[in-house]
Amino acid sequence: RKEVEQDPGPFNVPEGATVAFNCTYSNSASQSFFWYRQDCRKEPKLLMSVYSSGNEDGRFTAQLNRASQYISLLIRDSKLSDSATYLCVVRGGYNKLIFGAGTRLAVHP
Amino acid sequence: GAGVSQTPSNKVTEKGKYVELRCDPISGHTALYWYRQSLGQGPEFLIYFQGTGAADDSGLPNDRFFAVRPEGSVSTLKIQRTERGDSAVYLCASSLGTQASPLHFGNGTRLTVT
Lengths: 109, 114
Fold this sequence. Notes:
The complex is a heterodimer of chains A (109) and B (114). With 109 residues, chain A is an all-beta fold. Helices cover 0% and strands 54% of the residues of chain A. In chain A, strands 2, 4, 5, 9, 10 and 11 form a six-stranded mixed sheet that branches. A five-stranded antiparallel sheet of chain A has the order 1-3-8-7-6, with no helix packed on it. Chain A is globular and about 45 Å long. The N and C termini of chain A lie far apart (37 Å). Chain B is an all-beta fold and 114 residues long. In chain B, the strands form two sheets. In chain B, strands 2, 4, 5, 6, 9, 10 and 11 form a seven-stranded mixed sheet that branches. Chains A and B meet through strand 5, strand 9 and strand 10 of A and strand 4, strand 5 and strand 10 of B.
């Protein structure tokens, strides 16, 4: 089993739609969680950290479920510019950060 | 301020050659990470430095790969006897080194082994 697993997608949604991605992780001792965004042929960029109580940043909401060992990302009112790959990141032992394979999102007019 | 800088941005080499990839982290960042990414995959962890020492090198695929960070700042990833399967984008990232610190990535070095 991979340490961090994501549905690869693609998720094809119209502008204005709400879309949610899940990510599961295997190490129950993991302490920090992040969502990164990666555009084609670019480096990953931090979208948001994920806090235990859940957190929101504009149209983006992140949730953590420690009991079930998954994190989620909800995007409301999708924009064309949201089209990208979304990477789930989990901090494991010795400060090592493990990336999922990413979920592709395509927002169409 | 300046972000993470990686050089070269592209490197084409012949099978069997030696290559060095350089990473200059954000000033003040004590933690430095190397990842490699193949098309359609997420970044794959290679090695992590805290200061000058390699805190975790469990991701290095074999002994052809080696990385150093002699003064706790710039790091070099070295690949000996390159193979075609080493072709990928090599990403470097730095962070403040605390539990909650996210990574800041450089633009990557695209390595092509012919």
